[in-house]
Amino acid sequence: MNPHTEQSRTSAPGFAALGLPDHLINALAKQGITDPFPIQTAAIPAAINGRDVLGRGRTGSGKTVAFAVPTVMALDASGKRRQVLRPRALVLVPTRELARQVAETFAPLARAAGMTVTTVFGGVGYGPQLSALRKGVDVLIATPGRLEDLIKSGNSNLDAVEVAVLDEADHMADLGFLPPVKRLLDA
After folding, report:
1. ω into 13 cis (within 30 of 0)
2. Whole-number Å distance between alpha carbons of 92 and 147
3. How confident is the model at residue 9, as a pLDDT?
4. H/E element holding 172?
5. Residue 167: which of 108, 106, 80 has the closest Cα?
6. What backbone torsions phi and psi does residue 89 show, to the nearest 5 degrees?
7. Is 59 helix (H, G, I), strand (E, B) or coil?
8. Considering 23, 85, 89, 173, which has the largest number of Cβ atoms within 10 A of its Cβ?
């Protein structure tokens, strides 16, 4: 445990008080996350209740858990099944490094709910990404450019997306990704 991280946690309310089911509380606890950060306390209840949420915080403030938990809960509650080439949730990120980090946070939560997570980003071969999409994916974490390439080639379709998340939207805007992000959200 990072002592700096522990000091920035809030003591109330706990994850159970935020409405999380036991399997997600346990998945978080296995990662050493037992008390919510302020951004999680503020964002999770609103997102669980179907509201759009805009969160802003420094690195290490708990933003990823703040959107990962409600995303997994929404997919779990919908009861829909994953489909070939059609992710159920989309998380757009500006870089492959961030895609990997977000996937590391999502994976234990999704696994606890019987869901799958995959990443798609440039700079690597298409093979593993295509294979994962063809098996069906619950949560797709993607950079805009690679995802647009996959859609154009008929290897992904966003018509089954139930939850969409923009992570580091300001960074994506700075990198000039707003036009592809808008096209992807429209899809």
Report:
1. yes
2. 9
3. 40
4. helix 169-174
5. 106
6. -135, 145
7. coil
8. 89
Mean pLDDT of 141-156: 96
Share above pLDDT 70 across residues of the chain, in percent, rounded to a whole number: 93
CA–CA separation, 105 and 112 (whole Å): 12
What's the CA gap between 81 and 99, in Å, rounded?
A: 23
Res. 4: pLDDT tops 70: no
Do 154 and 89 contact (CB within 8 A), yes or no? no
How far apart CA 15 and CA 65 sit, in angstroms, is 11
Rounded to 5°, the CA angle 11-15-19 comes to: 135
Q: Write b or e for each residue in 83-106: b if 16 or more Cβ atoms lie within 10 A of its Cβ, otherwise e.
A: eebbbbbbbbbbbbebbeebbebb
% of the chain at pLDDT higher than 90: 87
- What does the pLDDT read at residue 142? 98
Kindly state the DSSP code that residue 84 receives in the 8-state scheme: T
Q: Tell me, yes or no, if the pTM score tops 0.85.
A: yes
Q: Which residue has the tokens 């706990």?
A: 14
Both structure tokens of 72:
């997994």
**Beta bridge partner(s), residue 119:** 141
Rounded (to 5) percent helix, strand, coil in the chain:
50, 10, 40
Q: What is the pLDDT of residue 59?
A: 83
